[in-house]
Amino acid sequence: MADRAEQAEHAISALMRFVVSLIIPLWALAMLALGIEYRSIWWLGCGAVVGAIGLLFMVGNPLAKPVLDIRESWRK
């Protein structure tokens, strides 16, 4: 059985992964907003690429799965 230190370590690790998986899509939205505001193809392209990567991180995060999984929403 895992002791309290290992449980805390796993909890902090999961929390950090969740935070990072949310920061990347938010940064992508900021870059898209800059692209729209300045009419810059560079910001729009970078925002789209970072957004795609961030979406993969967010969808692959086990903590976000219950929120993002529509197939299980009928059970609530």
Question: Overall 3D geometry?
Answer: elongated
Structural class determined from secondary elements: mainly alpha
Task: Work out the radius of gyration.
Answer: 17 Å
Major sheet description: none
Distance between the termini: 32 Å
The total count of helices amounts to 3
List segments where confidence is low: pLDDT < 50 over at least 5 consecutive residues: none
N-to-C order of helices and strands: HHH
Q: Helicity range of the residues?
A: over 70%
Tally of DSSP β-strands: 0
β-strand percent reads under 5%
Mean of all residue-level pLDDT scores: 82
Structure description:
By secondary structure, the chain is mainly α. It is elongated, with a radius of gyration of 17 Å. It is 78% helix and 0% strand. The model has no long low-confidence stretch (mean pLDDT 82).
Highlighted features:
76 residues, mainly alpha, 3 helices, 78% helix, 0% strand
SSE topology sketch:
Blueprint: H1 4-38, H2 41-60, H3 65-68
Helix pairs in contact: 1-2
Quick description:
The chain is mainly α and 76 residues long.
